[in-house]
Amino acid sequence: RVTNIHDLEFDPDYGFGGYKNQKPLEPELDEVMKNFEWSEHVVLSTPMWWGGLPAKLKGLFDRAFLPGRAFDTRVKPGKMPKPMLQGRTARVIMTSDTPGWIFWLIYRNALLFQVRRQILGFVGIKPSKVTYFSGASHPSDGRVVQWLSDIRRLGAQGA
Questions:
Q1: What pLDDT sits at residue 69?
Q2: Which residue has the higher pLDDT, 16 or 127?
Q3: Are 116 and 136 contacting, i.e. CB atoms less than 8 angstroms apart?
Q4: Cis peptide leading into 127, omega within 30 of 0?
Q5: pLDDT for res 15
Q6: Average pLDDT for 30-42
Q7: At what angle do helices 27-38 and 55-64 cross, to 10 degrees?
Q8: Three-state secondary-structure class, residue 35
């Protein structure tokens, strides 16, 4: 199943919703959650945008990964919520202009930690592996061919 986030119509702002006063999911976000629940392996392809996720993707996670559907908050006080999407793995394909060594040395791979551990891992999707392609705004033809070859190889391996 393929979802193109740019085609989805939803309000990415959770607004004043809370655990007790949840903002209802639009039908398209409900379908996204059904796809997550159906999946065994999730592939997420995204650019890094201003050092973070694009706003609409972050809004999708904010709105769709809700208590009772993605994680269970009915735990003892002081305990972490229980993930509800266990048994799934993920591959994140991220493009950026930031060279990988700068991303690691200066930014400490903070965005990768957020996606892998604080978002996907929090709801039980793990392990999640990352493929990072830098120089994405003006890549040479040979570089794009290599990236596509790498992605085809990962797909053939089921990774």
A1: 95
A2: 127
A3: no
A4: yes
A5: 81
A6: 98
A7: 80
A8: helix
- Which tokens sit at 26? 């639009």
Structure token digits, residue 71: 């994680």
Task: Please report, to the nearest 10 degrees, the dihedral formed by the alpha carbons of residues 156, 127, 23, 58 taken in order.
Answer: -70
Structure tokens at 60: 């999708």
- Which tokens hold the place of 35? 């796809």
- Asked if residue 123 lies in contact with residue 83, where contact means CB atoms within 8 angstroms, the answer is yes
Q: Which residue is it, tokens 């392990």?
A: 127
Query: Do residues 88 and 36 touch, judged by C-beta distance below 8 A?
Result: yes
The one-letter amino acid at 100: G
Instruction: Write down the residue that tokens 């793995």 correspond to.
Output: 89
